[in-house]
């Protein structure tokens, strides 16, 4: 099979009961009537993944305009219901206003630094779920919605939204028969992600019961707990908690990948030096030992075991200069405006991403990012390397990197209280 034929199409037709588009619920306060329209899903390979591995394909819904419009209206009303009644998981940052990957990581790193300052180590576990959006149980999701006060006609609307779906797969001119869809929420929809975070609401209660600290961003869950540098075994509460997480996920049709779960032992350099002769705690999830890495990538940021962020900055530098070299080759054929768009898309966006985390780092590391910015400015304006860079940055209305980071740290508060680990 050739690569170009490796994209499968799945057409999911929503053959709904009569009241699917005609419901009177608490969200709208009036009756709406729409005709149902088939929804198309395209099963595409994950970018950069092996196209011959079927596990790397995901169904993405190609929703009609009217379906997206209704999705957005219902999502707005459901979000308002969750906000008004304080039903959100406070430590879930995915798909919530005033929350982002940056606020999530700021909270997590603040917790980790507090523990490091107290002379302890932190065991950080990055849980990996398999195709979480595709395996949600519809009956359980409806139970979750009923549990947060979605009842009557509103619950009937969600029942109709989730049930009675049909789908089939098509490869070139070959098409499979139709089959029902009993699991998952539509990927590509506005409402799907909010339903997913609602589905996960009981997970926060379970984690708090065991006294471990955690933070979620959609299906990315980070669990962490402090331990003494001389401890050879992980805290019992962590082991018990991880086993109950696995069991809860299994009961809720979610799969925890023990062989893809990562762990990081975080502390100051002096604490790591004292504990270098103590073997790392052994953690086993679903029969798979979880190795401790020297660095892990979480929400697009590389975290190392001392939170120096040096590997993260090295990665930014390597990637940014790769794109700058390519843009420089194209520069003779580009206008300044087009060049600036490319630079912002491929280079400065990487410098700006989660920049509040880099506040207070050594000048040596920040200067590496400043060199990237200077190079980008010279390419845009065609300034010689011998010319002073400050007038160029002023011309482009760019703040130097260190000024940007100081501004970011003062203007990006986190709306949820930060909890200390000790």
From TrEMBL:
It comes from the Eukaryota. Signal peptide: none annotated. InterPro entries: DNA/RNA_pol_sf, RT_dom. Residues 27-303 form the Reverse transcriptase domain. Keywords: Membrane, Transmembrane, Transmembrane helix. CDD domains: RT_nLTR_like (cd01650). The chain crosses the membrane at residues 112-133, 145-163, 183-201. SUPFAM superfamilies: DNA/RNA polymerases. This is Reverse transcriptase domain-containing protein.
């Amino acid at each position: 099979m050739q690569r170009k034929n490796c994209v499968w199409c799945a057409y999911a037709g929503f053959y709904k009961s009569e009241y699917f588009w005609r419901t009177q619920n608490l969200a709208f306060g009036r009756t709406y009537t729409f005709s149902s329209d088939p929804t198309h899903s395209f099963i595409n390979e994950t970018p950069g993944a092996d196209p011959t591995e079927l596990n790397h394909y995901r169904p993405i819904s190609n929703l009609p305009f009217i379906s997206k419009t209704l999705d957005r209206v219902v999502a707005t009303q459901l979000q308002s219901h969750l906000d008004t009644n304080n039903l959100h998981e406070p430590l879930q940052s995915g798909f919530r206003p005033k929350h982002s990957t940056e606020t999530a990581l700021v909270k997590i790193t603040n917790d980790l630094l507090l523990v490091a300052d107290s002379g302890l180590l932190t065991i950080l576990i990055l849980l990996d779920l398999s195709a979480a959006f595709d395996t949600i149980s519809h009956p359980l999701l409806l139970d979750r919605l009923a549990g947060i006060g979605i009842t009557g006609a509103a619950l009937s609307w969600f029942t109709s939204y989730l049930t009675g779906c049909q789908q089939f797969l098509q490869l070139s001119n070959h098409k499979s028969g139709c089959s029902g869809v009993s699991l998952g929420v539509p990927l590509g929809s506005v409402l799907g992600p909010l339903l997913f975070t609602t589905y996960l609401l009981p997970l926060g209660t379970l984690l708090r019961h065991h006294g471990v600290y955690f933070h979620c961003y959609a299906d990315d869950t980070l669990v962490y707990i402090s331990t003494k540098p001389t401890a050879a075994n992980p805290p019992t509460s962590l082991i018990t908690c991880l086993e109950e997480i696995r069991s809860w996920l299994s009961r809720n049709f979610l799969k925890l990948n023990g062989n893809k779960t990562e762990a990081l032992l975080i502390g100051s350099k002096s604490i790591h030096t004292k504990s270098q002769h103590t073997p790392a705690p052994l953690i086993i999830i679903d029969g798979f030992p979880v190795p401790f890495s020297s660095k892990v990538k979480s929400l697009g940021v590389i975290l190392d075991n001392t939170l120096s962020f040096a590997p993260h900055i090295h990665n930014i530098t390597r990637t940014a200069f790769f794109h700058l070299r390519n843009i420089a080759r194209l520069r003779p054929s580009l206008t300044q405006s087009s060049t600036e768009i490319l630079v912002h898309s491929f280079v400065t966006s990487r410098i700006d991403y989660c920049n509040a985390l880099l506040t207070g780092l050594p000048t040596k590391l920040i200067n590496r990012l400043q060199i990237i910015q200077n190079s980008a400015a010279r390419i845009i304006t065609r300034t010689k390397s011998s010319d002073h860079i400050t007038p160029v940055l002023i011309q482009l209305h760019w703040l130097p990197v260190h000024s940007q980071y100081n501004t970011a740290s003062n203007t990006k508060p986190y709306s949820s209280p930060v909890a200390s680990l000790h």
